[in-house]
Amino acid sequence: MEYNVNQIDVSYDFTINGISYIGSPKANTAMYVSKKVAHLLENVRTIQNCLVFAEEGMEVDTELRKNNCIIFSKNPQRSYAEFANDFARQKCELEKGRKYTLTKDGYYLGENVRIGEGAYIEPMVLIGHDVIIGNNASISAGSIIKNAAIGDDFVCNEHAVIGSPSFTMYEDEERNKYRIPSLGKVVIGNHVEIGACNNIAAGGCSDTIIEDYVKLDALVHIGHEVHIHKNAELTAGVIVAGFVDIGERSYFGVNSVIRNRAVIGADSFIGMGAVVVKDVAPGITVAGNPAKVFERVK
Length: 298
What we know:
Blueprint: E1 3-4, E2 15-16, E3 18-19, E4 29-33, E5 51-55, H1 62-67, E6 69-73, H2 76-96, E7 101-102, E8 108-109, E9 114-115, E10 120-121, E11 126-127, E12 132-133, E13 138-139, E14 144-145, E15 148-150, E16 155-156, E17 161-164, E18 169-171, E19 177-179, E20 185-188, E21 193-194, E22 199-201, E23 207-210, E24 215-216, E25 221-222, E26 227-228, E27 233-234, E28 239-240, E29 245-246, E30 251-252, E31 257-258, E32 263-264, E33 269-270, E34 275-276, E35 285-287, E36 292-294
Parallel strand pairs: 3-4, 4-5, 5-6, 8-11, 9-12, 10-13, 11-14, 12-15, 13-16, 14-17, 15-20, 16-21, 17-22, 20-23, 22-25, 23-26, 24-27, 25-28, 26-29, 27-30, 28-31, 29-32, 30-33, 31-34, 33-35
Antiparallel strand pairs: 1-2, 7-8, 18-19, 35-36
């Protein structure tokens, strides 16, 4: 779907086809930036045709404004959210005209879905429009996959949900809360296993990424914009909040909880029931509530 910015500012004439994060912006997308992270606006300088909701009082030079539509607002997150809701409503109207097909094997398939060779898909699975799945997938009963691009040798156990809406809110002047729509997706690499009853949220303003050989046990929740690097292992009941970065070969014990925007280093070990409220350096073991550094038991 495309949205022409001349609906917002007649001085510009280019289309927006999605959203992105101001920290890693993409051309022809919408985003927002506050004074608190004003330096991130420099990331837009190397691209063009962006719609940027910026906080009033920020300095934006002529060159940036020439190549991108900058809209100033007292509350740029709210202004972005209102745009995103309008964009999402138009997208939803288009989606209403698309159909699901019940296959002879008992699962539902949306339009423009691509599934590789050797797939085994059980009854009562639903695969949404435009989903891509590689070769040799095994998808168990009751699972729902939407807003996703998935690699080869994928295993999805019973009743997992991939591509669910992110849990992101904004407030109006009276502190009433409203949901910001999810316009990103889930990107999954090769040889990944998703456990039974997992929930993998789609990105709110970019993508949730799960790299090759990641293994998730049952009842795991992965928040929006999380990036899990290769060979990470998350055991049963782990909860990962939004924007967390999880390093390669890291291990998460049963029922551990990771706060939003934490960075978990490679080869780290998160103990059973740990509540991680700050970054964890590579190769470190943490445990407890709040989690503290422990010597790893050999």
